[in-house]
Design a protein that fits this description.
Blueprint: H1 2-11, E1 17-25, E2 31-32, H2 41-48, E3 63-66, H3 78-83, H4 93-106, E4 110-120, H5 129-147, H6 149-164
Parallel strand pairs: 1-4
Antiparallel strand pairs: 1-2, 3-4
Helix pairs in contact: 4-5, 5-6
Length: 166
């Protein structure tokens, strides 16, 4: 009740709101990341070098503008999602949330994390190698489409190198 109502109120609060999600927590109550910066080759390089955080820090206002949210909870206005074409079926599981949030931004709308509410999400804590590689492939697919093949290839090479060092 309260979580859904709070998110629905935020979605309907203005025509500039695209997606809303609460904070995510694991079943043990610990923090689970959601609400990241949209990736770019430069941002990903900074993250790998430890110069930048992946997750957007919470805004003191209680509503944080982010680049993209985890797809386990995305609330929006149905007509808006229809206007932007819904989920792109070319993107598999891990890439769908990134891809649609990027289009929300391109349409001039905000992607928001509601800091006052949280939702338990099971999963994402301990991924095996195959799942990490699948997630990386989705990111590479999006980068290839939105930033070009050269950028995507460079990021993919760094990801393979990082995985090999695990």
């Amino acid at each position: 009740g309260d979580l859904l109502e709070a998110c629905a109120m935020l979605v309907s609060s203005g025509s500039d709101v695209g997606f809303v999600s609460p904070r995510l927590i694991y079943p043990d109550g610990s923090h689970q990341g959601t609400g990241w910066h949209l990736p770019s080759p430069a941002r990903l390089a900074a993250e790998h070098a430890g110069l930048s955080q992946r997750e957007v820090r919470a805004d003191d206002s209680g509503v944080t503008d982010v680049g993209w949210l985890m797809g386990c909870f995305l609330m929006s206005d149905r007509e808006f999602v229809r206007r932007i074409g819904g989920f792109d079926e070319e993107f598999w599981f891990h890439g769908t949330d990134l891809e649609i949030c990027a289009r929300v931004h391109a349409a001039g709308r905000r992607v928001l994390r509601l800091e006052s509410h949280s939702m338990v999400h099971v999963g994402h804590r301990a991924w095996d190698r195959a799942r990490r590689e699948s997630s990386q492939e989705a990111l590479t697919q999006w980068l290839r489409r939105d930033h070009g093949a050269l950028s995507a290839g460079g990021v993919a090479a760094v990801a393979r190198w990082t995985e090999a060092l695990r």
